[in-house]
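Supplementary Methods, section 5.1.

A reviewer requested that the exact input to the structure prediction be made available. We therefore reproduce it here, unchanged from the version used in the analyses.
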Amino acid sequence: MASFQRRLVGAVRLDPATYEDVEHDSSATWQAAGIVVVASFTTSVAWYIGLGSASWIVHGALQALVAWLAGSAVLWFIGTRILPGRKTEATVGQLLRTLGFAQSPGLFGVLAVVPLVGLFVPFIVSFWLIAATFVAVRQALDYDSTFRAIMVCLLGWLVGVVVIYLTGFGATALH
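The structure derived from this sequence is encoded token-by-token as follows.
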């Protein structure tokens, strides 16, 4: 458990060594999945409080898991096939683990329910998650520069937007 706590703190601090550690530890995949689910719960509680039943929160957790799995595969493909670096050698599992741990700042999403301070929490957590994702992708894909990781993430985001638009998933998720 101490190792998990150390990793969680390192991921929140955007420590590249932490992301390298989880990248190479296949047993950390379940830890990463747990972070994705719990971060989804903490954010869901803050966003959906009073808006409906607990099914909103469960639905959000399932969406987060699907997005994590699909996003990892898309970023792996883009990062290893379209924009590989000189040293890029990665598996989807490595991206699953690093991207799962990159969701650690989302645990602070629950602070959105705190009066006054909560107004700023979604904004801060969103940027923190983006930064953690850049670090996770850079480390998993063994890039020398953060710029390449940012480009992979932007292309991945674009793919996600197109898929959501073409499938109408975003519109149906709101109902």
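The chain has one domain: 2-173. These observations are discussed further in the main text.
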